[in-house]
Amino acid sequence: MYIPIKSKVNAEKNRNFIKKDLQCRNKSVISPCRKTSINELYNQNKLQMKKHNFNAGPSILPREVIEDTAKAVLDFNGSGLSLMEISHRAKDFQPVVDEAVALFKELLNIPEGYSVLFLGGGASLEFCMIPFNFLEKKAAYLNTGVWAKKAMKEAKGFGEVVEVASSAESTYTYIPKDYTIPADADYFHITTNNTIYGTELKEDLNVNVPMIADMSSDIFSRPIDVSKYICIYGGAQKNLAPAGVTFVIVKNDALGKVSRYIPTMLNYQTHIDGGSMFNTPPVLPIYSAMLTLRWIKAQGGVKEMERRAIEKADMLYAEIDRNKMFVGTAAKEDRSRMNICFVMSPEYKELEADFQKFATERGMVGIKGHRSVGGFRASCYNAMPKESVQALIDCMQEFEKLH
């Protein structure tokens, strides 16, 4: 920081500070003079130890998406402006939204009569928007974890909420199977993947009422029969984009059936009519989402993402089941492909902190379990390379040999 100039000594200190500051700026990635190119930065990073990003969210993105987003941050489409400073009404940005919507519909095979929206507020805001738009009298919820429970809590302010089943008594280590959904429910809400506990619904359910799903963490990891749902939503920061954008797939003719007044910003129809631009949208995350969708398509689409997800999950679960030092926490039939949760075996419990340190020293990032359950969690989203999963397996085997 600058020093008040009360002497020649302080003046000299300020001159030295400014000189060092300018030198630092010229070396900085975010330098106003843009002295460091994206390629130079990438080459510098390659000299560092390989990092394996298992964070649960925000999480790993494809390298191409990161590089192309970074280029657009410096100069968007040759405009001379940063992606962060363009107007969302600029002629170059509307095609980004249009392409993102088109890719959503293509990759998920979304039928006619559905709209795709890009909003703010995260899935947590959708917990409120869902009942605002769809709950007239009664809604049914399947309680499979913290996020499902939070969605239920919000819905209780709008009508009767029926918890058809819960696995809370077992710390959400399984997904309930036997339950009855009220025939007069306005909708049935599910959370398809439970990041904290490592459980997942891997197939679309067959139910007799309209269905709504929070797919924040497993969207694009498997094919979906969208026609079974009136709404699918999620925060995009786990399997699609940087934090800041929420995706919503909504069936158009399911709207307008509640009698209450819906505030303008919380009304899905507002955003359908405004093309996701009723208010200023999250420009940068939408652009990154579009790039990720391009990447998924280029890789072979959602079926290929599912194949890779199964392969990576099977590899890691096989090691967890083989290794005497670790135990999986989720019921085997409900194990998530996206978030693989495990703990130390009881006889090695005291080594939990040691393994965390051991793994961190070998480049594993974000494997610490959620604070509410402890243990470990390896999030293997679409962009996670098989090589990183193998690196974690090698780390577990090396630790086993030492103990």
Automatic annotation (TrEMBL):
SUPFAM superfamilies found in the cross-reference section: PLP-dependent transferases
Binding note for cofactor: Binds 1 pyridoxal phosphate per subunit.
Cofactor(s) listed in the protein's UniProt record: pyridoxal 5'-phosphate
Aminotransferase class V domain residues: 53-392
Residue numbers bearing the N6-(pyridoxal phosphate)lysine modification: 238
Top-level taxon: Bacteria
Cell compartments where the protein resides: Cytoplasm
Binding site for pyridoxal 5'-phosphate: 123-124, 147, 195, 214, 237, 279-280
Keywords: Amino-acid biosynthesis, Aminotransferase, Cytoplasm, Pyridoxal phosphate, Pyridoxine biosynthesis, Serine biosynthesis, Transferase
Main localisation: cytoplasm
Binding positions for L-glutamate per the UniProt entry: 89
Database matches in InterPro entries: Aminotrans_V_dom, Pser_aminoTfrase, PyrdxlP-dep_Trfase, PyrdxlP-dep_Trfase_major, PyrdxlP-dep_Trfase_small
A GO molecular-function descriptor: O-phospho-L-serine:2-oxoglutarate aminotransferase activity
UniProt GO cellular component terms: cytoplasm
Pathway membership, UniProt: Amino-acid biosynthesis; L-serine biosynthesis; L-serine from 3-phospho-D-glycerate: step 2/3; Cofactor biosynthesis; pyridoxine 5'-phosphate biosynthesis; pyridoxine 5'-phosphate from D-erythrose 4-phosphate: step 3/5
EC numbers on record: 2.6.1.52
One Pfam family linked to the record: Aminotran_5
Protein family according to the UniProt entry: Belongs to the class-V pyridoxal-phosphate-dependent aminotransferase family. SerC subfamily.
Function text: Catalyzes the reversible conversion of 3-phosphohydroxypyruvate to phosphoserine and of 3-hydroxy-2-oxo-4-phosphonooxybutanoate to phosphohydroxythreonine.
Subunit structure of this chain's protein: Homodimer.
Protein name, as recorded: Phosphoserine aminotransferase
Species, as recorded: Prevotella heparinolytica
